[in-house]
């Protein structure tokens, strides 16, 4: 029965790799083929074997492992890893922890991940390769762009728009309807009450520009 499950490979043996493996182990829908890392330093993660570096990718694809996930927390590095996985022939399914909540009409792009106890509200849109981390809340009608990261415990109130590659730090809160530009960084614990330009760094309560 277990062998009938589709196989998936995890790229990344670091902390976020551990979180993605925890998601897969909790869900049970996938058979984990193993872990690959650009520079392996351990032999296993959560009991799942590390199979080597990325030179192993073509052989794994040829052996019938059809899916993979780039388990890298850094946004740009995650996107680059995804491109390498696609080039090697892997599909990038969206992954959702069984302890997460998805509202009606919520959508997830390819390669997105929603971790434990996160909430994605009704008709929210999570972009390709975006990460909604542990305990984050993305309320109704929000839009999270490609490759963005909503860190643990962050809260996006209704209708918030997060640009591609942006980072919303742990415990940050963003007011309804606010837009955070592409590549912007919101510091941990910030309270964002107004729009944030692309590429800016904001922090504090209320949030102010630390670098524009």
Structure description:
The N and C termini lie far apart (54 Å). This protein is α/β, with parallel strands linked by helices and 212 residues long. The chain has an eight-stranded mixed beta sheet, with helices on one face. A hairpin with a 2-residue loop joins strand 3 (44-45) and strand 4. The protein is built from three helices and 24 strands. The longest helix is centred in the first third of the chain and has 13 residues, at 15-27. Helix content is 15%, strand content 30%. The mean pLDDT is 96.
List the helices and strands and how they pair.
Layout: E1 7-11, H1 15-27, E2 31-36, E3 44-45, E4 48-52, H2 57-62, E5 67-70, H3 75-87, E6 95-96, E7 101-102, E8 107-108, E9 113-114, E10 119-120, E11 125-126, E12 131-132, E13 137-138, E14 143-144, E15 149-150, E16 155-156, E17 161-162, E18 167-168, E19 173-174, E20 179-180, E21 185-186, E22 191-192, E23 201-203, E24 208-211
Parallel strand pairs: 1-2, 1-5, 2-4, 6-9, 7-10, 8-11, 9-12, 10-13, 11-14, 12-15, 13-16, 14-17, 15-18, 16-19, 17-20, 18-21, 19-22, 21-23
Antiparallel strand pairs: 3-4, 23-24
Number of DSSP strand runs: 24
Query: Mind summarizing the main beta sheet?
Result: 8 strands, mixed
Q: Please tell me the overall pLDDT.
A: 96
End-to-end Cα distance, whole Å, is 54 Å
Query: What is the approximate shape?
Result: globular
Low-confidence stretches: none
Considering DSSP H and I runs of 4 or more, what fraction of the residues is helical?
10-25%
DSSP helix count? 3
**Coarse structural class:** alpha/beta
Output the radius of gyration: 17 Å
- Please state how the strands of the largest beta sheet are arranged side by side: 6-9-12-15-18-21-23-24
- Please indicate the percent range of residues in DSSP E strands (runs of 2 or more): 25-35%
N-to-C SSE string, H for helix and E for strand: EHEEEHEHEEEEEEEEEEEEEEEEEEE
């Amino acid at each position: 029965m277990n062998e009938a499950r589709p196989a998936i490979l995890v790229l990344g043996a670091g902390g976020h790799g551990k979180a993605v493996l925890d998601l897969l182990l909790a869900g049970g829908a996938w058979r984990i083929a193993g872990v690959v890392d650009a520079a392996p330093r351990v032999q296993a993660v959560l009991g799942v074997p590390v199979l080597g570096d990325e030179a192993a990718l073509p052989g794994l694809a040829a052996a019938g492992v059809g899916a993979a996930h780039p388990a890298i927390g850094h946004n740009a590095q995650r996107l680059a890893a995804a491109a390498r996985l696609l080039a090697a022939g892997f599909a990038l399914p969206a992954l959702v922890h069984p302890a997460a909540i998805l509202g009606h009409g919520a959508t997830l792009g390819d390669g997105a991940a929603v971790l434990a106890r996160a909430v994605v509200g009704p008709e929210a849109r999570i972009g390709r390769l975006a990460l909604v981390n542990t305990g984050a809340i993305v309320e109704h009608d929000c839009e999270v762009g490609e490759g963005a990261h909503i860190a643990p415990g962050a809260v996006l109130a209704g209708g918030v728009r997060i640009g591609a590659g942006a980072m919303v730090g742990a415990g940050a809160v963003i007011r309804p309807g606010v837009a955070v530009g592409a590549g912007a960084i919101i510091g941990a614990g910030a309270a964002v009450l107004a729009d944030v330009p692309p590429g800016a760094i904001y922090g504090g309560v209320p949030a102010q520009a630390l670098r524009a």
